[in-house]
Every structure is written in C-alpha cells, then in structure tokens.
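Please predict the structure of the following assembly.
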Amino acid sequence: MTRLGNMHGPDFTYLGVPKADLDDESTYSDADVVIIGAPFDGGTGHRSGCRMGPMAIRGCDYLPHDGSRPHLSLRVDPLRELKIVDVGDVLMPAGDTEKSLERIGEAVRKVCAAGAVPVCIGGDHTIALADITGVARHHGWGRVSVVHFDAHADTGDIIHGELVGHGTPMRRLLESGACRGDRFLQLGLRGYWPEPETLEWMARQGMRCFEMAEIVDRGLDDVLTEASRIALDDCDGVFISVDIDVVDPGMAPGTGTPEPGGFTSRQLLDSVRRLCLELPVVGVEVVEVSPPYDHADITAALGNRVVLEALSAIAARRRGEPVNPARPLLEGR
Amino acid sequence: MTRLGNMHGPDFTYLGVPKADLDDESTYSDADVVIIGAPFDGGTGHRSGCRMGPMAIRGCDYLPHDGSRPHLSLRVDPLRELKIVDVGDVLMPAGDTEKSLERIGEAVRKVCAAGAVPVCIGGDHTIALADITGVARHHGWGRVSVVHFDAHADTGDIIHGELVGHGTPMRRLLESGACRGDRFLQLGLRGYWPEPETLEWMARQGMRCFEMAEIVDRGLDDVLTEASRIALDDCDGVFISVDIDVVDPGMAPGTGTPEPGGFTSRQLLDSVRRLCLELPVVGVEVVEVSPPYDHADITAALGNRVVLEALSAIAARRRGEPVNPARPLLEGR
Amino acid sequence: MTRLGNMHGPDFTYLGVPKADLDDESTYSDADVVIIGAPFDGGTGHRSGCRMGPMAIRGCDYLPHDGSRPHLSLRVDPLRELKIVDVGDVLMPAGDTEKSLERIGEAVRKVCAAGAVPVCIGGDHTIALADITGVARHHGWGRVSVVHFDAHADTGDIIHGELVGHGTPMRRLLESGACRGDRFLQLGLRGYWPEPETLEWMARQGMRCFEMAEIVDRGLDDVLTEASRIALDDCDGVFISVDIDVVDPGMAPGTGTPEPGGFTSRQLLDSVRRLCLELPVVGVEVVEVSPPYDHADITAALGNRVVLEALSAIAARRRGEPVNPARPLLEGR
Amino acid sequence: MTRLGNMHGPDFTYLGVPKADLDDESTYSDADVVIIGAPFDGGTGHRSGCRMGPMAIRGCDYLPHDGSRPHLSLRVDPLRELKIVDVGDVLMPAGDTEKSLERIGEAVRKVCAAGAVPVCIGGDHTIALADITGVARHHGWGRVSVVHFDAHADTGDIIHGELVGHGTPMRRLLESGACRGDRFLQLGLRGYWPEPETLEWMARQGMRCFEMAEIVDRGLDDVLTEASRIALDDCDGVFISVDIDVVDPGMAPGTGTPEPGGFTSRQLLDSVRRLCLELPVVGVEVVEVSPPYDHADITAALGNRVVLEALSAIAARRRGEPVNPARPLLEGR
Amino acid sequence: MTRLGNMHGPDFTYLGVPKADLDDESTYSDADVVIIGAPFDGGTGHRSGCRMGPMAIRGCDYLPHDGSRPHLSLRVDPLRELKIVDVGDVLMPAGDTEKSLERIGEAVRKVCAAGAVPVCIGGDHTIALADITGVARHHGWGRVSVVHFDAHADTGDIIHGELVGHGTPMRRLLESGACRGDRFLQLGLRGYWPEPETLEWMARQGMRCFEMAEIVDRGLDDVLTEASRIALDDCDGVFISVDIDVVDPGMAPGTGTPEPGGFTSRQLLDSVRRLCLELPVVGVEVVEVSPPYDHADITAALGNRVVLEALSAIAARRRGEPVNPARPLLEGR
Amino acid sequence: MTRLGNMHGPDFTYLGVPKADLDDESTYSDADVVIIGAPFDGGTGHRSGCRMGPMAIRGCDYLPHDGSRPHLSLRVDPLRELKIVDVGDVLMPAGDTEKSLERIGEAVRKVCAAGAVPVCIGGDHTIALADITGVARHHGWGRVSVVHFDAHADTGDIIHGELVGHGTPMRRLLESGACRGDRFLQLGLRGYWPEPETLEWMARQGMRCFEMAEIVDRGLDDVLTEASRIALDDCDGVFISVDIDVVDPGMAPGTGTPEPGGFTSRQLLDSVRRLCLELPVVGVEVVEVSPPYDHADITAALGNRVVLEALSAIAARRRGEPVNPARPLLEGR
C-alpha cells in the first residue's frame, strides 16, 4: 500500500503536519503522535456521511496551516513540541466492514509499536472496535482504560442483524477482553438507548456510566474527578474516545444520531483537556462528524479543536511541569 | 371525519405508536395518552412553516419506530408502560382560524372525556387557546394550572387587527376564565414584548412570570420549585405548554420568532421532566417547531424529545415510586 | 423476516399505496407493480447519504397520499389502474454489501416470480447488480435489455480494491451473462470516467453509449429512437435503470457523484415516459438520490416523479390504445 | 389604514421606487404602475412561507436601489419611463382569508380606478381570486383575458373543505363570471392534478391549457403565438398571472408545491417579455415565491426579474415603436 | 456625500429609527445615539461575507419596525427614551482599506462631536481601528477604556503582509496611543492565536485578557466585576467592542473565523447589559456577523439584540435610578 | 515569496497536479499550463465570498486526485498529455486591490514568459484586469482577442468611487490598449446593466456582445461561429474569460451577482470546449465562484469542470488531429 491521502478528496494533512506513509515505518518511527484517518461510515445505523469526517476535521481551521498552534491557556505549541505526522486515510470501503476494520486495526497497532500515540479521526464509531483493539494489542490486553464521551453507550449486541457496527463496538471490546469493564468510563449518555437488558449487561461488566442527569446534578468537574481516578487505577494507559454527538446537536448538528440535551462545546473541550493533562493517554479517537449534516463547518471545526485540545494537553503533560489553564492569560508572560 | 394522518405528508404516527381515529372512540377509549397533531400556522405573525411541525416531530428519531423507548435515567419505557395512541392531524386549514380552533378544541375535549392526557403537537401557539380550553372544559373551568415555557408571554390583546393568533392565546384563556391568572406560570420570557400596558394587565391577573434574568440569577432549579409549588396549589390538574422558542435560537433555529438568550436544550428537557414528575399533568403541547427554518432536523429532534421526556416522566410518576434521575445509570441494575 | 417499512424512519409507503410483506406472498401475488426500497449506500465511492433515498422518494409529494395520481398528459391514473403495493425496505446494512445484495436480489426475484414489475428505489447503484440479476433469473438470462440513464457508465472493474460497488455493477452484469452487452444502452454519459481500457472493454461487449455531446448534436428524440429500437430487438423485456445524476447537478444537487452538464429534469421525465410507453418494461430502478445533499427536497421530488412517470406510462401502455402525450390537455375531454 | 410597508420586516419598496399610500390617492393618482404586496400564505395547501415573498422580491437585486433599470435588449428603463410607486403590503393575516382577500381586492380596484396597472407580488395564489376580480370590476366583467403560467391549473373546487385557497382561485373566477373560460390561457401545466372531473369542467368552460408535453412538442414560441392570439381576441385587457412554480423546481426551489419538469428561468422571462410587448396588459401578479425553501435567494431573484421584465416590456410597448429584443446589443447604439 | 442607506440593498434603518445623513449635521445634532453601518469585509483573513452584516443586523427582528422596544427586565424602551438615528452605511469598498477606514473614522468623529454615542455595526473588526480612534479623537487620546469581547485578541502585527486588517486593529490602537494598554480589557479569548511573542507584547502593554478557562473557572460574574473596575478607573469613557465570534460557533455560526468553546448567547447579552449599566459608554461596535454563513438568521438576530441590549442598558443608566434586571417581571407593575 | 498553497486552507493543487513555485522558474519552465489561484474578492460590489473559489474549484471532484482525467468525448487525457502544474494561490489580501492586482499580473506574465498557458481561478472578476494585461504584455499589446462569458459586460467606469473592481476591468483593458475593442467578444449578457452611456462607449470600441435574446433567437452554435471567426481574425492568441454567473443562477447559485435567465451548465461546457478546440488559447480564467452561496458544491463542481473542459480541448487541439466530440462514445475504440 502506498499513501492514500484523503480517501475522498485532495491529499493534505491535519493542519499541515508532515505526511507519513504507513508502509514506510521510517516516516513515523520517531513520531510522538500519528494522525490516522478512518473514513468509514458503513457501520452507521441511521444517517451516513461521516466518511467525509477525516477530510473535514483535518482541514477545518481559519489559521494558516503552518505547523504551529500555540495553545493560549496551556502555553504549549503541540505542533512544535510534539513530533506529529499524518499517515492519511486508511482505505476503508463502506461496504466491507471486515476489511475496513482489519486495516484500521493494523494501522493503529503499527503506530503503537513505533512508540507513538495514534489519533484516529473518523468515520463512524465502529472503528473503536479496531483501533482500541489495536492499542490493547500493543499496550496490554485489558491494561488500557477507556474514557468514552458519547450520547450513546455503543454496547448493543446485534443491530440490523450485524454484530459489528457503530452501536456495538464497546460490547465487542469487553467481550474480547481487550478492555476491562471496570475501567470503561462513559460520559454524556442520555436518551432512550440501550434497553434495560443491555444496561444490566453493562452493570455486570462493572462499567461506570455518567448519564447527563448525574452530570448536571453533580457538576462536570466532580464527575471528571471520579472518572479520572477510576481510569488511572491499575492501568497502563488510557484511551480517549470522543463521539462528537456527546455535544448537544443544537451546537454540533453535523452528526448521524443526534440526541438533544448534551454537553456544550466548551464542556467537551474542557473535559478532553483535563483528562489528557491528568492521564497517560495512549490513544485518541474523534468520531461521528458528518459533514453533509453540518452547517458552516461548525461541527468539523469542533472536531478539529477536540483533536488539537488533546494534542495540546498531551504536550503540556509531557513537559512535566504543573499546568494551570485558568491562570490569567498574560500573567507571567 | 375519518383519520387524516399527517395533513402534509404520509400517514405515520409519533414514533410508531398505534393509530387511532377521533371519530371512533373505541380506538382511544382505554388510552393513557393521545397524540394529536395540530398542523396550523395561520396564527403566526412573522415566519410561518410550523404547520410542518407535527409531521417532523412525529418522525424525527434515529431509533427504530418500534413502540419502545426505555428512558435511561427515569428507568421507564413510556411507550410500553402507557397506552399511547396517535389520532393523526386534525384538519386545520391555515386560512380559517375559527374552524381550525374549533376542531382542535373538540378533539382535545374528546380525548379528555375518554380519560386520557392529550399531547398536542403544533403548529403555532394559537392552538393553546383551543386545546387548553378543551382541557378546562373537561377538568373544570379555572381548575387547571398552566406552566408555560416560552420566550414570549403570548398575552397580547389585538395583533394585526385580530383577536386570535399566536401572540394572544394566553390572554383569551384568562379572559374566558378557562384558566386562572394566579395559576398561570411563565418561564423563559425575554426580549422586548409585550409592552408595559400588557404587562400591567398580566400583573393584575396575578400571573407569575420568570424572565431569563431572574432565572439566571436564582438558578433554574429554584425557579422551578417556586413554579411547581404555585401550580400545585388548589388545582385539579396542570397543563404544560412548551413553545420551542424558549430554547435559544442558536440551539433551536427552526422556529418563527427567534429571540436570542434562551434556555439550553438540556435545561428544557430537565424542566419538563421535573414538572411532569412532580405535577398531575392533564395535558401537554409542544408548539412552534418550524421545519423550513430548521437545520439537520435538530429542532424537530428536540421537539420529539420534549414530548418523549414528558411521556416518560408521566409514566414514572404513575408508578408511584420515588424517582431519582441523577442516580448513577447502572446503579442497582 | 417481517415487514421492515422504512429502514431509517417511520413506516409509510410510496404515495400511500398498500403495504405488502415480502414474506407473505399473498400480499403481492396479484400485484402489477411492487415497490421495493433498497436503502443501501455502502457501495458509494464518494459522498454517501443515498440510504435515505427510499424514504425521501416515497414521501416527497405535496399532493394527498390518497392512492390516486391522474397523469395530465397520459390520461391514466397509475395508482388506480395498476395494482401497486410497496413491500417497504429490504434490510440492507451499509457495511455488509454481500448480504445486502443477496437480500435485494432475492426480493426482486420473488416479485418477478409473482408476475409483477419490481420498481426498486435506492440507495446507490450497486443494487443494480442484484436487482437486474434478479430480473434476469426470472425473465431469462441475457433476455432482458437494459436502458441505463446515468452520467457514469458504472462499468469499472475494481474500485478501492472491491469488485462490487456503485461503479462496477454493469460490468458484473455483463460478465455473468445476466445481460447482453449489445442490448445494454447508456444515455447521458459525460465527464472523465471510465478510462480508455474500460471503454474498450465496453466496446468489445457491443454496448451502445450515448454521451452528452452526441445527444446534444443529434437531439434527444433521435437518440431515444435508436436506443428504443435496439432495446426492443430480440429481447423478452426491458429494464429501465435511472441514476438521478444523469440530470445536471444544477437541477438535481442531491446526489453523490455530481457531474455537470447533464439532462434537464424535463428531458429525463420525457425519456422515461417515452421508453415505458414503447417498451415491454419488466423492471425499473431509480437510484443515487442522496437527501443530505439535497435542497428543499427537489431531487427527492424528481425521484418521486421519475417513478410515477414510469408507472403512468406502464399503465398507459397496458391500455393498448395509442397515446399522444402532446395532445392538448383539454382536447376531447 | 396607514402605509404598512413590508408586513414582515423593514419598510422599503420594490427596487427603491417611491412609496405611496393606498389611503391617500394623491400618492398614486398619476402612476402608470402600482406595486402591491400581498404577504398571504394562508391559502397554501402544503408548504407555507410565501408570505415572505413580497419582501424578498422587492429587495433581491445586487444593483443599487436607485430608481433606474435600463433593460439591455428592450432598450428601455422602466423605472424611469414609467411612473411606478409601491404602496407596500396590504395587511393580510394568514388566518383570516376572507378579510385578507377583501383587502387585496379593494387595493387592486383602487389602483385600477386611478388608471394604473396593478402589479401584485405574493403571497400564495389565492390572491388571484381577489386581484383579478378587482381588475375585472374596473375593466369590465368578463372583458379581461388571463394568461396564467403555472404548474397547476388552480381550478379545484373544494380543498380541505374550503372553497377558497391557492388551489381553487381560477374556478371561482370563472364561476363568478369575472373571467371568461375561453379567454383563460394556461401554460406550463404538468403532473398529476387536477383529476379528470375538474379537467372536464375546465374543458366545458372553453379553457385552453398548454401542458408541458405540448409545449415541448410544438416549441414555446408556437404556443405563445396561439395563446397571444386568443388572449387578444375580443378583450379589453389582459392579466398576466405568474406562479413561480411554472419554472422547474431544480431552478426555482423556493416554492411550496414543486412539480419537476417545468420551464427554465430563461423561458419564463422570454414568455413574459413577449406577452407584455404584444398584449394590452392591465394587471400582473407574481406569486408563490417561498423564501424559507429558497437557496441563495435565487427564486426571489427570479421573481424580482419577472416583475422587472413585465415592467420593461410594458414600457417598451408604450413607446409605440417596434421592438426587436434579439437585435445585437450594441447595434445602432 | 449623500445618504447611502444600506450599501448592499434597500435603504432601511435599524429597527425603523429615523434616517439621518452624515453630511447634514442637523439630522443628528440632538441625537443620543447614532447608528452607523460599516459594510466592510476587506480586512478579513479567512471567510468574508460580513459586509452584509449591517443590513442583516438592522432588519432582523420579528417585531414590527415601529420605533418601540420595551425591554422586559430593564423596564426601559430605548427607542423611545433615547433619540436614536441611523445614518446608514458609510461607503466602504472592500478593496480599498485606507479609504474605507478614513470614512468610518470621520463618521464616528462627527457623531461624537455632535454629542452622541456612535454604535457601529460591521463589517469586520478592522473597523475598530477607525472607530475607536474616532472616539479617542473626541473624548481624549488614551482616555477611553475598551472592553473587548472576542475569541481573538486582534493584536497581530503584520498579517498577509498588511499592517491593517481584522487581526491587528487593537495593536494599532495601542501603538498610536489612542487607547491605553492597561485600560484594554479582553473577554472570551481562546484557541491558538496569537503566538507567544504577541502575547508578551500584550503583557508589556498592561492588557488584561480573560481567556475562557479563567472565565469558566472564576465564573463570568466575577470576571465582569474585575473588568468593570479596571475600565472605570481613571477613564473618561468606555468603548464596548463585540466581535460576535466571542459566542460559540455552535450558537452563532454566521461569522468568519469560528473558534469553538465560547460564550453562550445568554452570557453575551448579560455581559453587555451589565457593562452598559455600570460604565459610561461612549461608543459601541458589533462586528463580524457574516450572513452567508448564517442559518435562519440566528447570528444576525443575535447581533441585532446585542445592539438593542446595549441601547437598553444605556437608556436605563441615563435614568439615574437603580436597576435590578433580576427582579420578577411583574413585580411592582 | 515562497509557495503559499491555498491562501485560505490546506495546500493542495488542482486535481492533484504537481506543485510549482512562482519564485522558482525551474518548477514550471517546461509546463504547458500553469494553474494560478487568485483568491481575491475585494472587488466585488455586492456579495463577497469568491476568495474561497480557488480552493473549492481545485478540490471539488469525486474522482481520485490521481493525475489522470480521460475526457470521454474528446478522447484525450489533459492531465497526462499536457504538463500542468499549480503554483498555488498568489497572496491577495482583499483590502489592498492594487497590491493584489500587481501580484497576479506579475504571476501571469512570468507564466507566459515561460511559454505556458496561464489558467487563473478566481476570485472575483477584478483579476481580469491584471491577468489579461499580463498576457498582453507577453503576447503583444492589442494582439490577444478576448472571448468573455458573463451575465455582465464589466465595462463600468467608476463604481463606488473606484476605478478598479469587478464591474470595470474590461473597460480598463480597452483603455490601456491591452486589448482591442473589436476583438473583444461577450456572450451571455442580460439584465439591466450597464446603462446606455456605457453601452455606447462599448459600441464605439467596436465590441461585439451577444445578449441572451440574440443567443436564444439565433441559437448558441451560430453565435459561437461568429464569435470564433472574429476572435481568430488578425490575432496572436485568444484569452477565454469565464464568469460563472453566465450560467443561470438556478443552476449555479454560488456566485455574487446572480442574474436570472442564463446559459445552462451544458451550454457553457460546450462553448468552452468548442472555442478551445478552434482557437489558439493563450490564457483562461474562471471567476466569481462564491462557495458560501453555493449548495452541495454544485457551482464549485461546475467551475472545476469548466477548467477541465478547457484543458481537455487545448490538449485535443495540440494533437493536431480532427476531433468530433459528437462521435459515438465507443465507435472506433
């Protein structure tokens, strides 16, 4: 395989970081972070379109694509302080889930093996099955905690007759043992799915799920503290999975299964920042951005910033110095 | 009259609940809740389009239309625990307000007489005059409190030379005595309407209106507590009226008279949930969803969920057991 | 399997014709035409979204869904003169092409076996492989001519590493022998695909393709006359395949692979009308309507009318009397 | 009544022509043309929104609103050569059809009485009943021919239980005798409405309707020649009624009842130009532009230009000199 | 120069206030507030379109444009209690920044000289250089504090080779001495711009910038208290500059450089209200509303209301009586 | 200057052709065609946004960006048969017209000097002044004919007080003598601009303008024959200037000054093809594609295809063999 670039358009990289090629390890062997596009929407149960997500997330920024993004409050420039490359999209035909997942899983495994943090931009959430498995293969079966932002638990069993799709990946991950149920944290759930049988199965796995009512009641900070503590306990790394539909569809319309009543954009950015500052992140995915349902690219811009917030916080954490994002912007400059 | 279905499109029901026919009482005589579509936008003073609201609200859900919606935090499945039927739209030509209101009023009265809770999906807010009157006819003149979520008081006197329209229904309801002014609660008001004379008239009726500044200052919970207390006092039932424009137009653009600075979607869902848990609800309306101004169906989805939140809380209340929506999702499963 | 209805929304039928169930042959055994939804977009190589096509095409009409559509110029009412039923969507998960195609192919075969004309509404053009094969199984291998309206030949060999997808079905159909190359007519081709090798392969099959330059030069009528003559020669039936992207994207934006410079809507309607009047149609498909890229439902409305034009002309042909669509509307009334 | 301006927004006039007030005859007593806004959509049977049409049509032009519009091929400047004033919108609440029609009818009558040509911008087609009646009152009962561009005949009898609405005005006009059936010409009809009984009624009235198939078959020029000849025969004036949905929805999406397969924009402009050059026009209406379904204001721009084309041709005709629009642009300059 | 009106459309004023003409001082000599349109987008570095902002902000309101807007919670009617006129747009060709800025600067200076508060509606933020300079020319060089709501500091040095543009005005204002750095307050900054060198320059100027993390951490009220205190200290007036992109793009999509994670609309309205109540405001600007990227006019509506909130609070402040916006709406009526 | 790429987004080239750098002549010294982006919209008099045109036109294609585009009817692959490179955008700040034009003019001159055909993608039509001048500098002052497709003559004198803008470039070109008036052909003009004085000036220059009425009357083929003959007479090269608004806004909404009644997309493609086959083209520009007003990228796609059609015909012409685009697609393969 040679570098594909964006499967559905011109070849460019996330904010202009250097290109790399999955088939040529030398192009990413010294990378801290490797961006991987997963333009797959064959697993969506309702609206499709998120195959266009990787291209939209990569390119949606009004600033020059010049390899620099100094984070105002974290005071780091992740694109300069980390070595970040973008291997482009993995070839993922929507009609062939099995082959698509194999490819993304193998890509993630390679990246982990090279010592880098894979950042997967989807595509639908089906890819979690492949990329988290890929991370677990490298970092240890059951040794990676997952913090999962989503309106939906994605722990269904069989949907439309299929074991694999964007409603089931978390169940498959727990069934395989790639992840431990009691190190699987979910934030932002709401609505009317899944049904009680699945919730009981989840409870039996020891999962900890923060539905919106609990988050509103306790406050997001308190909930994040608990989630962070659990995730950190007896683990070798943490995977951050962000389904953009955790944000209220009123603020992030470009997605396939919009459930009203979610996070604000601000809350998502703050949550990702805090977790990536506090936890040893070994993988990130941002999924379910569906450009055809977006308006003025606002959901794509949010996806772009979620990735960048994670990168920034990872960079800040690596400095090994205390960070206070709330410090006045110009204080100490 | 025979069943009309959706006046402006294919015949289907709210989330696939069984069809019923207003002219055949046997089809809804044992129902707990009856959905009634009111596709009328002849009363709007500015942008029209909400005649398409009932169809959009009925159908806008990414989950299968399969007669089941288990609410995650309330732990009820309203579509299974309640007997809910949908009589389809009432024939409401926009150009004939009088006939339209007569029809919806009569429909609501029939439903109440059958012992069910009418849930009206509009359509513009003009219908409040008819459906709340219909409820009052059955439950007692002046015996039903109203909790009204809206950016606007809808208590105008004469607008565009007309006594009846979406800016005046609440005044007409108080003038007729169908509702008591001191049991009429309004939440979410803001902006620049109505003018002082009308506000003085409202004060004289004993109304209690929570403008956004007060809500921000005191917190929504505190305000809801006060509203709930008043509504419950010396009443035989409560009607919940939700104008979707109570939510900020930034999150709910699909409406006709957008006034910036409103609720978040989350706040509206939480408010409806709480009131339907605490109060003896005898009728609900969700109005002013205007699909031609919507984007990616996000306002229609919100309308769908407001209805479902009300149904869920009604179902939970009927169980007669204490409910704590903020309880951790998997606790006790 | 029981009736699925619309896979991605409420259950309603094409313009309100009666429901049928593929698993219960009695529901369609006396039908003239059976509508089948194929909500599959896993085969699209670029923009997805056409899985929402069947629902949009079924419901997009401003007239009452009342089982009657009197065609003005053909003077037939196809919904009354033909017995038309709608079996709803076939379950087609985008991520499993093989299973999806099997299901639609089997559905079409059943319908043909029952003596009816299948009218498939897609969904992407991949389904042509299954539904035309299904028709050929019943009417005779190589005995059905195909008239194919499209901007693209869809005769690619392997795309994105896949033999099956929306760019290859016509090649597969000729390779299998289901269709004869010299009875495969294509109208509306333009642009920059496929490459010469594929065109040479097509030439070797004896295909006859009318690129837009030829159509503009000769006039559409002349071209249709030639196509009709070839299709009718030594065949037992004709299949009409309409990819909506044959129309200029300026008039039909809601599609996935828009190639400027196509038919007007009027030309497509006239072409379908004429062919269905002149030829013994045994199957129809209308594909590639992609609602998320549509505006104001204009492409969905066009898809709805292409189906209805075909049904009308089929009905008119069955009357066995001469038809002159250009006769003055009121003449002879 | 005092001048209302735009009922749904700021007060400005069609392309900046002077304001006038219906209640002050001196403001329009010497006018050649009077623009009247009819922001009514209470008669629409499906999508509403055209109440916003008058404002959109008035203001939608990229050129300065400076009182000059020199027509390139007709070589006239209608805004300078005619005295044109705009009386603003007539107050037309959607929910009160009767009162709305009375007001627009009276406005048109006044304008005719003042010796001017009324140009009504809608609003839905219901207004035809009022404004053509108004014209007939002044110019003679049954003495005004009508040339009507539309996808629909608008000759229904009772729709949604109502005699009056946008599907019935032409029937009411013939029933009252305001217009003669044999001087009622319709161009652009297509689709599936009305049903045969109504067509037979139309035939009995002696109407002449040019369905799209006839227009395509004979060519638009030939059809216009016939229509023009009939309209001119034994009449005292001609009313031009343009429903924007005569144009294909692919080119004019902003309308409520889109029927694919219509005119191009160019064809409509050419037709209006030719008829207003050849015939003694005594009234014009442009209706059914529905801004909420429009995109980038293209339908509003078309509506603006249809009005301007009519004004230009009326101005050219009044010069009394031969006009050849096809003359090379710079020839003779 | 004569009155231009809206440079890009019909001539109407902000909510129908009286027209004035900059060249005729008598038209605004007794005004309290003068609205000035600045339809310039030549300074935008990314998406353009905000030249259409002034027209959109002026006209976007569902209430009648009747010269009255009684503010519900402030209990003032700014359009009646203040004398407000609108001089229309200043002629500002996008391609000539220098001339454009000269014109707007001179307009603002004239207005200040007449004793009125200029309210500038943009247009891009480049205009701040001209209008704040214009205010400083009148009220004293370095004597006017600035409170600046924005996602971006706009303190860049040279962008795209240009000293002047929408990313640099605040630097130019401090360099010229028009404003003091230690009286320049910024709220809502976030994201990845500007780079550290610029931040250090800002620190050296003594600026006080409240990044979103600090605002979330401390609460908006606390931050406003500090900003208000600084602004009031040793100043002769305060200028309020509102870049609409301070609001989250999820709620205000119609802007050119959307940075996720901002204020809610409610927060912006409350902030503007409070500051205009507490501070001696001598000028206001609302910029960067870009209608082509807006949806359903929600960003334009927000811009309209930000202006109106400022006007209302200015009017309330002038009454000289204590104001409590959180007082129950009907209390004391 | 180093290569800028896309001024407003990621760096990629037109359909993936190789990158080149204007400052390094070796990168384009052997090129046949050089693509130059001109992202300038500071000259637009009404709606802006076309600065985003170059990026949209470069990337808008559903086919792989793989350096091959075999034209179906011309039987050439321009991306392979010509050496085409893309130098990216020229830095063009909207607010500095003079500097922007200097840069694009110099870029074009360099490209011509290197023996290549410049293909400029705009951006607004102001750039014509610079790029046609650049071509004339190299090929001879007054020696290059211009064929100009547009709804507007663009021969204004002073607009908004400016000599330079998108309404005046053609006048400036004739005034300077860069082009001869009697070798300046315009096709597609229509509407109400410019005024008679300007038309008289145009006539005096000997221009030949084909207004739409003449085109409809004579047929496009006939008109093209005349235009081609004039352009070829006594010239050393022909410049093809395509303003996308020559196409009807109903089919190409994404533009700033939409004038209804234009070409179809098909007609534009056929015209460009024919002229580039018949004439010695030395430069091409495609301007006024404004993405924020586009829908589903249909106007951008058309712009992409106009460029590709020109490239294809140039390639076909260079072969020196007769070409018959209307030859049956598979004949002779």
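The radius of gyration of chain D is 18 Å. Residues 14-319 of chain D form a domain with the Arginase; Chain A fold (CATH 3.40.800.10).
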